[in-house]
Amino acid sequence: MDISPMELFQKEAPDVAAAFSNLIMALVASKGLDQKTKQLIYIAMKASLGDDMAVRAHIPMAKAAGATREEVVDAILMTLTVSGIRGVVHCLPEAVRQFEK
To answer: In total, how many domains does the chain have?
Structure first.
């Protein structure tokens, strides 16, 4: 049985994983941006790193917060001027696939 990276993190470093979870919850609860905008920013930041696993995980959250296909695509495309083509080629196909379901 395979264990997910987050499950392994929680198993191997439970105190650090709990602190990380608390940080995430504090960011989610902050009031400066709405949840859709936060998800789109997160997707763009992770796409700029070429982190397709994180983008894949956050697209459903963005969709649940009301993000459209066009908004997610634009968030990924915004990474071109910061980090080049890497994020687009690694993350755009999955984003489009998730909206075609």
So the answer is: 2
**What pLDDT score was predicted for residue 1?**
61
Can you tell me the distance from the alpha carbon of 50 to that of 42, in angstroms, rounded to the nearest whole number? Answer: 12
Distance CA 9, CA 82 (A): 30
Which amino acid, 67?
A
Rounded to 5 degrees, what angle do the CA atoms 47, 49, 55 make? 35
CA distance 46 to 54: 6
Shared domain for 44 and 93, answered yes or no, is yes
Number of helices and strands in the chain (H, E): 7, 0
Same domain? For 45 and 8 the reply is no
Q: Does 89 share its domain with 44?
A: yes
Q: 1-52: per-residue pLDDT in tens?
A: 688 888 999 999 999 999 999 999 999 999 999 999 999 999 999 999 999 9
Q: What is the pTM of this model?
A: 0.86
